Amino acid sequence: MKRKFLVLGVMLSCLLSLSACGAESQSDASSNSKYPVGFFNQTAIENYANAVEDGYFENWYLEGITPDNFEDELYVSLAMEIDKDEAQQAYYLRGVDESKYLVYKSGYTSWYKALEELGYGDSKSLADNLSISEVSYSFDKDGKLVVDATIQGTKHSAIMKIYLNNEFEPTDIGVTINKTTGEKLENAGLNTLLGMGMAFAILIIISLIISLFPIFFGGKKKKKESDKEITKKAMDNTINQIAEQEDLSGDAELVAVIAAAIAAYEGSASTDGFQVRSIRKVSKNWKR
Question: How far apart are CA 78 and CA 75, in angstroms?
């Protein structure tokens, strides 16, 4: 019994040591990173997440901005740095930086596509139906700050993931719907059926193409020979072989017999006055 308690105590000590190491590593990542702890605190990050979802995305949606007209409506304000001269009432272009524009366009497109699944009543109740319910942040393996904000809708919730640099500027924004296990299985089943259907359709098309090969590339089929033609060719070949191998100058009667046999087989009258009769073997004793 004492031995069991000793083993249990050692295991608990190891688990506590591992958890302490993990907490220390997370604390070190926060304090030793490129992000000032006093500036990048929980409150500031929550305010930023709300500003992105509520101040930017929801307002853009209410203004009628879509992924299709995003460039026409917001390129100037997001990509161009413009200074205004109050004295001369003139504007001067200081520079163009498309990185911020591209990040917000990608993030807004992702949020826009997830909006239907998140669920909301109408445009007037959009602000009340969508809200940030929870915000957390961590550092990835490259030391970059990652913000996870939970967006709550009337149908589903979603995770809005924001990557921030040390200037508090986003480098990437994405929104992913949180689905139940049943919904995930349903989507997996539909994807499987679609994949199998596509595979069968491709196989059917390939089979049809192969079946058309004889029509386009087969040409004319060779005419099937009848038994009569085959027999005639065989006899002709036999006669030719005999003619090549033997001298038939003294065998006129044999040639006449073969010709008469061919004529009889073809159903025509005997040629050259020859008639086919049965041949009987004559006994050699008749001379005696």
Answer: 5
